[in-house]
């Protein structure tokens, strides 16, 4: 069981921070949806969460229909590529089948370290030069950011989304000159905008958890994401609001300084956390929670309850798809990950319901009236349209949870 200090820090987190923490615990990735006019604020909040809450570097990938594979790959990297000729000289091709084309082992998951001169004399005794050399002069290795924020990923071409799926599956990205491995702590967040649908009167209807109308993720990529979260702007952006309060205090000339650091200056250029600032959750904290989640027990009645929820979702008349074996695996994983955050070493029915809401929110695809299964039996199209009107994934999940009896 986690200690009280760690649990207290968990309870102080916002919903967005919890979504990121759960993904890091499971080493999976998440989808976060918000109205279009709040998307920029969401991305800024996620930047601050990356650096302040977890002490991780970040990169923002702005996707649109013209995004190319090269644009996507280079946006993930922190640094500036060196000329190709130097890259070929410093990373010669090896004849060994156990090395990549760049001669670098594929399990290089660690962040760059400043190059140090060789302690031994003679030619060839020093460490090889880095593929990246920043303006400052010290050489560092090219590497993928710990947190990748893909804004409007659903608008990217299919080829780019397939490349994103390969990155999530293999934890590697190929560029023209080398192969880059993702760091050990790696989180990919798809930040999507959804402004709902307009009806005949021009009124806009917004439903929590709808599949984004401004661009849809490819089915296999969408299914690979661990959890989905709808963020209502009315719930606020905690870190951005803290920055606003500090800026207001500074503008009044007050000498009072907020405890614990922070502020806009806590994030430096390039998406790196400020040196000397301790994150709320260290890598050891995340590893501790991950270990506890693997030790969580699931009673047979609770497991039966989980499987009944899966079965009812598959049979729901409004569901066109999204109840996949991958979703079921993530369902069980999230149930166990939630238990240590509540100070438990076993899964309760309430945690099962909470996990279902997060795992299936971005996966459930609502069927069109023409393809609803009762149409095969002679149902009227107008009647089916009336039944399905205004139904979103969150409505389906809540209805299933209400129908399936929980174990006592």
Automatic annotation (TrEMBL):
Gene3D superfamilies: Magnesium chelatase subunit I, C-Terminal domain (1.10.8.80)
Protein name, entry field: magnesium chelatase
Pathway, per record: Porphyrin-containing compound metabolism
Record-linked Pfam families: AAA_lid_2
Signal peptide interval: none
Organism: Thyridium curvatum
Region (Disordered): 80-138, 197-217, 239-262
ChlI/MoxR AAA lid domain location: 314-373
InterPro entries, per database record: ChlI/MoxR_AAA_lid, Nucleic_acid_metab_PIN/TRAM
EC assignment: 6.6.1.1
């Amino acid at each position: 069981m986690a200690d009280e200090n760690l649990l207290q820090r968990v309870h102080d987190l916002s919903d967005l921070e919890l979504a990121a923490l759960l993904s890091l615990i499971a080493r999976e990735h998440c989808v976060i949806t918000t109205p279009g006019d709040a998307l920029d604020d969401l991305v800024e909040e996620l930047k601050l969460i990356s650096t302040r809450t977890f002490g991780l570097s970040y990169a923002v990938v702005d996707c649109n229909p013209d995004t190319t594979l090269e644009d996507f790959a280079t946006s993930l990297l922190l640094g500036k590529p060196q000329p190709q000729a130097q890259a070929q000289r410093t990373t010669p091709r090896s004849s060994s089948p156990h090395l990549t084309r760049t001669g670098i082992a594929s399990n290089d998951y660690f962040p760059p370290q400043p190059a140090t001169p060789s302690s031994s004399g003679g030619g060839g005794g020093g460490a090889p030069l880095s593929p990246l050399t920043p303006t400052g002069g010290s050489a560092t290795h090219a590497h993928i950011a710990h947190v990748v924020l893909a804004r409007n990923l659903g608008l990217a071409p299919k080829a780019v989304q397939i490349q994103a799926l390969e990155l999530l599956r293999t934890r590697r990205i190929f560029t023209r000159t080398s192969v880059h491995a993702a760091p050990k702590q790696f989180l990919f967040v798809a930040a999507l905008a959804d402004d709902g649908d307009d009806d005949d009167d021009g009124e806009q209807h917004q439903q929590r958890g709808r599949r984004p109308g401004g661009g849809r993720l490819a089915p296999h990529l969408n299914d690979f994401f661990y959890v989905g979260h709808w963020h209502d702007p009315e719930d606020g952006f905690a870190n951005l609001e803290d920055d606003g309060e500090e800026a207001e205090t500074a503008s009044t000339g007050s000498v009072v300084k907020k405890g614990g650091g922070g502020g806009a200056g806590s994030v430096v250029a390039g998406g790196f956390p400020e040196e000397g600032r301790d994150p709320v959750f260290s890598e050891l904290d995340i590893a501790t929670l991950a270990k506890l989640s693997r030790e969580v027990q699931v009673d047979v009645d609770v497991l039966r309850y989980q499987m009944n929820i899966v079965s009812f979702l598959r049979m729901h008349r409004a569901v066109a798809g999204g109840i996949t074996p991958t979703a079921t695996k993530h369902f069980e994983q999230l149930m166990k990950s939630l238990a240590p955050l509540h100070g438990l070493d076993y899964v309760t029915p309430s945690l099962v319901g909470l996990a279902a809401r997060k795992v299936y929110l971005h996966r459930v695809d609502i069927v069109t009236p023409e393809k609803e299964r009762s149409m095969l039996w002679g149902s009227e199209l107008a009647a089916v349209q009336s039944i399905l009107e205004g139904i979103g994934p969150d409505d389906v999940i809540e209805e299933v949870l209400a129908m399936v009896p929980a174990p006592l």
